[in-house]
Amino acid sequence: MIITFGLVAVFFAVIIFILHKVKQTNDSFTEYAVAGRSFGAKYQAMSFLNTWYPGAMFTAFAGLAAASGVISFYVLTYSLLTVVLMYVMAKPVWVWGKAFDLKTQPDLLALRYNSRHIRTVTAVIGILSGIPWLILGMQALGVMFVHLSFGKLSFSMAVLLGVFVIVIRQFWTVRLGMRGVIISDMFQGIVAYIGGSLILIGLIMWMMTTQDITLNTMDSGMFTIPSIGSEQGPLWLFSLVLTGAIGGWCWPYIFVRLFTADGVKTLKKSAAIAMPLSLIFCVSLLLFGMYASGLSSVEGHAEDVWFIVTNQAGGPLLLGLAGVIVLAATMGHTDGNIQAYGAQIANDLIGNYLKLDPKQLIIIAKVGMVIITIISAWLATMTLPALFALAVMAYQGIIQIAVPQFMGLFWKKGNKQGAIVGMTVGFITAVFLEFNFPESLPWAYGLTSGTLALVVNMSIYVLFAYLLPNDAKENQRLDTLFNLVHAKPNKG
Amino acid sequence: MTDINDPYHAGSKKWQESFGTEKLAQRQVELIYHNKVTEEEKTFIESRDMFFLSTTNNEGWPTCSYKGGPVGFVRVIDEHTIAFPDYDGNGMFLSIGNMSLSHKVGMLFIDFENPQRLRLHGIAHVYEEDELLSEFAGAQLIIRVTIDQMFINCPRYIHHYKKIEESMFTPEKGISAPIPDWKNLEAIQDVLPEKNKRK
Asked: How many CA atoms lie within 13 A of A101 on its CB side?
């Protein structure tokens, strides 16, 4: 226990040391919310990965691979597609962000649709949808601490410890805003995904060489995916990939990554850096899970596969490192999450109705972060049976932002009425369907609630675009907005 | 209006002659002087959040002021006309007053982050009632400028600056703008217009 907790303590101390060295460049809200749009490609790539892959990758997704095999590779497909989308969205989002000093995802929608109300709607959907995932992240640390204590800590005590670690960490998130998040993401990302990949590859080699596990020894059920005639329906896998890929950019803490870069080229370069890292990490993780299914110790404990195998292969030292990796991934995700919500509370909810100076905005953002942290921490210590269902429901709901977001970036005809009504009806439809038909809709060939709601959402959006076409002034405004994306700077 | 093909007066021509730049100056007339806004210039002007405005009073004294607002606060109405709002200021109405009398203005648009600039000379008119008033949050008057001549300028001496943050006083639709600190000074409370007084 001394070794495992000691390693976690050392890692935490290094993070605090790094954060202690971080200096903000000025006292503007732009600096606080998007780090003054100043980061290069490497920081951007690592920050994206650290926010994208939470600690739950090592539990939920490794567990899914161990329990169900290749179906788990859908996470790889949508993760890579998300990076491709970053490349596609980089230019309009960054150019508009820079020109109009946008700080949040609702800011972008408010600009595109010339509507303040859409800012509020998007922010409310974003914050409400994120809280269940924040709580799950904190609880995941509880699971980690149970393993690091070799079962000596009760789950409730371990969750309290996890919450304590996260809450302490938030002191710096609140104080430093986005710059602190991104700089710590670099170190956390290296530990979680580069260090993690190395350990995962090592463990795969260990299982292949010492445990004689190969792809041939695995159950044939590990290699099947749902298709025509399957229980889930032929479109189920498609739905998972689609919602995962487009849903990624609906999360405010992922989207804001597009505003923290110092240019469009940087964003595109960061996508190119993130792609191979993401590929290696995700493939290693999922293959690791599949190989680990051959170990008898993993049977019936798929979600604990990461801790079981590291302990079995390398004892307390490797288990301690496994804990550090999960903590690094969880912190990156949680910090980004809390920071984004603080910025949204200040900028999109209160700042949407009151003119505030940067100091006031920063104070409100800090108070918002503290409140979100306290509420999530409090809820994390409670037993909430419907939490996971709520989180899934939230995911199906938040992806409804995708329609006005993506369509708005590339299609001038979309208007605010279609965006607000489509997104709201889509959100309600998704929640209603998820509530009544959790997991998949048997009569919809495997489409998930969120995917079906996307169809409704998109239909409303397109219908409104043609029924209520933008007037000449709005078209002129949009022309200017879109021309800006393609304007070439004159270098004289 | 200026002859777009011969925009230089005797003063400029004398110095062009002294420095041997007459042909260079004339070539620039042929290449960059014009009086119709191109699509590229429209995008450039409408993506600015500030410009410098020079005006002259009834005795010919020039003054220059900085005008700032949200991105797009200067709008290209058609290829010969641009317009911009007048926001609450210090109450002196120097530029507005000058434009009401002499009408001639010079405008300088600069992009400090991707160094480039555009100069525009024109004839300005101030309107108290204008359909654009409702389109610019916080506008109290609208100025429409008929373009006399415009040309891009060499950006070599433009220092590279970075915008940190939009001014919190930038007018925004639906949100009342805060009152600047100096309008809270006791020394001016008795002469402030009603709308600027502390509530």
From this structure: 21
